[in-house]
Amino acid sequence: METEQERISEVIAHFCKSKAEFARRMDVRPQVVSNWVARGAGKQVLSKILTKFPEVNANWLLTGEGEMLRKKEEDALSRIGANRDKGDKENFVSEVTEQSSKEFRIVEFVDLHASAGPLGMNNIDILPDTNRRLIPREYESGNLLVVRVDGDSMNDGTPRSLYDGDEVLIVERTYNHWYDLPIRKNLFVICSRGGNVLKQISEINRIKGYIVCHSFNPSHADYRIAFEDIYQVFVVLHVVYRKISLD
């Protein structure tokens, strides 16, 4: 079985032209990559590799078992249309345009109500279907997840509202970059010691080291989270599922 160092070398050879390119994609110095190849990297670094290179099979990278690249997602897509085969095939009329599996990828799904701690650390290959979602292949890189909105704090009755049960696609921003984002044009999922929440960031105070979380719903007061208490910050890209209400 290959060593951890050999598996890292294989990832570099497959996806990058050089260690220097791999270092840029991993946001580290080339010497750090050389150390990983020579001595190993540890689980935290391997998890980061899986984030940067989602095509890599997590089980292979972590244990050496299986193939380097993940299996294609045709099986997941085929399950979506499974009900068609249970009915009257001859008279079946589809009102949904079928899409090629090449147009999608699978990401982890998390319910914010039940989550705590850092997000996106699970092996997608062993998660049950209930904890996985299909998203367009146009979102190729980064730590991408789909999360379910919890509660009414982002619902002010206007078209911008997010409702309890909505699902949104999010992507992680590294600590070196997230505080430079145009905060008034984005919503964020903030993972901290106090829990995981979806909020607008109304202020980033670099001098005193905190952010201010703001809710659309005026019944929810603003509050601060210290930089030192933040594990991760994700940017909301768009809504992937809107809960339908007949009220």
UniProtKB/TrEMBL annotation:
The keyword Transcription applies. Keywords: DNA-binding, Transcription, Transcription regulation. CDD domains: S24_LexA-like (cd06529). The keyword Hydrolase does not apply. GO terms for molecular function: DNA binding. This is Peptidase S24/S26A/S26B/S26C domain-containing protein. It comes from Tannerella sp. oral taxon BU063 isolate Cell 6/7/9.
